[in-house]
């Protein structure tokens, strides 16, 4: 089959070239429209239901979160429902099963939500979040007033009512969230003494204010053939209009107006988020949230273009300053990868060129690389995989391997042609080549098949890791598959193009020499080839040495593998390799309960300190929540985006090479001895400068942080969710579990979540006193709500803008508890009694945030497990908890955690890995027809692990799935080279046997040396191509390089050791294996 | 044989190497044990080795080390000093110096809640906080020295301006008659004492005047008589007639003129008995009036009353002559000093309020009866240590201040705060005069203190945390 294809392509070169050319054009087109992003979208299919209501967490939980969560229970394809109640906000995350369509999920949520919407308190505003996540925060800006003439509320109004809508209309933008500044509000500050004196109640004032701000229509009136539309005007639009509102008319017809009992001012609405730019104090900012699955690069470009359009219409002196722009990172990362790709291609091409020393042969693999990479984008585009660091890294690591097929083909052709020339050119030159191509075609296809099969486990990954690494696996496999296809189609066609076997002889001489070199080339035997000669000189003595001590060699190899095992366990693990995004997200956290003022003050001071660093370009701080459901941060979580200047502008440092090394040499040292202050040092310095008591500093990066924040479940291997109805009880059980599990062997750490304190002022009514005054709880609550809290009673309509109108008591009456106690409650007997006479007012602590899981209050216990099989651990832990922890009725424990995931992955892997190994084994067996050989080939895997582990250890990398991906990629390569090694050994042995040179152990040794050493070139070439191709990645420093370095490192380390293993250990094993064949022969039977 | 020996050697070598590596890792682990790690976002999660936070997946960071040794020692000492259990302490009134009780409740004298005295020094679950230079700068920590002093609390009440009842004069005629002329013809008109109010034509009065004239004439005639009895009788008659006129409120000036002129006028002019405002005018010109007729009421507003309702607890600290300030909600320029002049002895059962009456001078008449006036009654509290009230962190369980041990260390201290007013707090217990406390950023100091305490609990020997907790509750 494969041979037929090769033959067909070789004979129809023009057709193949044309076809490939057309496909390349198509690839260029798809490259233009393919989605660009920094990282793959890792979010679950998740719908956020956000409810806003200015109430404390427990009230929100009881009246909003709980009904919402319970309404959604039983919705189809829902994996988990998690609710969080915070002050003023209820977040309900509905997580759907993997692969559920987001828009389908959203309509299910709406459908289920509609059943309860009527049952929620009237003031609750429930909305379903945008079709985006926090990871979609691609662009942020701040408004800066250069003229000093605009107040913060004006700027916020401009942001809210003009800029926001203009940007939200940009295709691909899901939402533009405002942050900071003040939302303008009409504040009606009612003097309780005055309304008491006028015999009014606050309720009445509120009612009157509400009634005095409306507009109605009176349908139509027809007059003399014309129709007139009737309208009743009446929106209050200014302070004066509010002041004139009549509250009551006295017996003598004297009206009591609002201004008689209250002060009307314009002030800030209650603030749940503040922002700061460069430590200059309050500012107004905006966050552009990209729609799920959009092309980040394009969306940002469109947003920027729209901002440019809007520039002339900005109010005087106001400027839009970009505070975060992900396209920088995307551009830089893609630039880095492109740069690396090009370098890799050049290096690999050079390796091939040097090894073959023959341009017509080398040109085939050299062209195969870019073409297969380019063509890979067509299926990637069709599958909706975006171009990001992961998918490009997949391509980057496959470059060295891509060409294997081509190398083997051309090497074989080269060898055959050389033999053909040596043997006096018998037969047709073309046929010889074609035969050579057809000969190795199946094995080329097979070797690439092995590599592809090895990747099966990656596709079995689910959830976040699946979403993160699947693009990499796809792009790598697609590139490989395309290379395989090209090896069967394009390569033969191209190889056949160079049809000439004789040197050119035209004049001038140098031109004909050049033409000959390029188009014909000279064929050298391995012995005469300069590279081969160098290899022989080193490898032959080494080979002989191991053959002298085969057992010792095998033993040493086993020991080397064994010695690596403890090292492996000392390696740290991480979910995702770090991606240096070029910006810092500084996340200082305080305990909950910090006030707006204090948070704003802290924010400004921190930003000022940060802005003083010379490396910093802008600092945009945010405390609290931006006006979006994708931002669940309370005031205790400050998020400051620090955009750094390009690294060239950072403070420099003296290094040993700084003075003498010329500029072109410096990049070589830089990755190991940076001559500028490094990112880590910078963060370290910042951290030292920002040690503030009560604040713990977290330094992360914008995208990474958003991804981290996406997961709302348990991240430890084991988690115990305590579901119940009483928070105190849940906390008590949590502590008991904590102490019970400490004793279980294998527990590395156990931590029961404490309800963190929030501060409450409790106003607890005394019912008997209320009764005495004829008051109901509701009357009292009315006062608490409106007088103390202040209620937005209506909204003004002023052109496009809408502002809330708030009624409350003067601030000085709410200053401390004593004053709160004096807040008056109107009784039915028209008397007014102070709060303290009907209720107790006290400061208490309570939960600052409440978690709801599938309708129950939930507390988590996080358990980290080490050195133990998780299934057994969980069983024992369950027993221990059942014995030692008493559960009150109605409280349940749910065991979950990553172990569920791990277990699922493990279950899948339990099937997949044996199947994969079996498949590879079968493929190997099919190829070599020997089970022993197949096993020996697979032995390369542990050898490669040795190098990978040690290199990881030396570089201080952590193990992540990225590393495993690298290892798996390596496995295919190992198998391939292993097969070749054994193949050449077999061939050599066969020939020796045929020639009768296999009489004793010495003959065996000679045969092995011949097979191993004489055919080292193709093996060296494939391995070196892969190795040298990966090396520049290890040197790269740009954006996205870190991810790639972690994938490339195991490959580089593994290639070295597995190759050494193959070169040195395989002969030893081979000798031990074949010795029995030879020894009886010496015994006499053979002859 | 050789091969075997060589292999043995290699195995040994590798074994040694392996143990070396393991040993190395062990010793490294031992070193690491001393460093604690916590999650930067969930600082309460503390681990003895690096890794990821189980809650949010962030990388754990080493717990800040500056001054850690000292903190550990001191912190443990602090937590070991178990706080007194409630019930053992004394309860004192935050206002008065006396008022000590064994049980919580209200002060018998001023009605305020009693507070626990002898509070423990370092509150449980908190630890000392070292602050670096940078930290001080960013926090903007300012320390304030506690001073002894008094604090004023202000009772605010709204009152109604009322007429000073002692300054109301009602004008009646003592005889019937007709009002010939009304000099003060409008309600609300201001009058001065002695100015004419009205001309009264009263036949009855006229007869009396005639009588007086006659008595005068008779007295003159009799004055020449040699008989002393006659002389005395004439004088008696005259003085009786004059007294009657005087009792009718006929001004003596009129009588003197009468004596000169010798014939009575048709009408008699009545004079204002006091300065003030005519608050009621019951008559019109030409009206016939009887002595029962209310002619007018003159009210003197140079001094007014303000009557205010004070709530039970508030009224207790107020006594007669307690100074007070009156102001008007619509006119900020008015501030008048006055005093309490009456406290109603009976509580209004409906509103649970006391009526308290204040007296205010009203020179320009700016307080008008019927106005609502705000009354502030400053009440001086007991003496104590004064600090800014931003320095006090009320956690709901206890009130805490952070005292500056030196320039860069703050020690939490439980205090008893009596009163807060006008940005000041009066501390009765837990703080001495001259100590310095952090005046701002209390929230962050409190957070840090808790985090450190949690870290110390984890760092301490295994049984210790349970013990601490037991003490704390």
Please outline what is shown here:
Chain A is of the alpha+beta class and 1087 residues long.
Describe this structure in words.
The complex is a heterodimer of chains A (1087) and B (473). Chain A is an alpha+beta fold and 1087 residues long. In chain A, strands 1, 2, 3, 4, 20, 21, 28, 29 and 30 form a nine-stranded antiparallel beta sheet that branches. The radius of gyration of chain A is 37 Å and the shape is elongated. The model of chain A is unreliable at 1082-1087 (pLDDT under 50). Chain B is of the alpha+beta class and 473 residues long. Chain B is 28% helix and 32% strand. In chain B, helix 4 (203-223) runs antiparallel to helix 5 (228-247). The longest helix of chain B has 32 residues, at 2-33. The radius of gyration of chain B is 44 Å and the shape is rod-shaped. The model of chain B is unreliable at 6-33, 66-89 and 460-473 (pLDDT under 50). Classes of the chains: A alpha+beta (1087), B alpha+beta (473). Chains A and B meet through helix 6, helix 21, helix 22, strand 19 and strand 22 of A and helix 1, strand 7, helix 3, strand 9 and strand 25 of B.
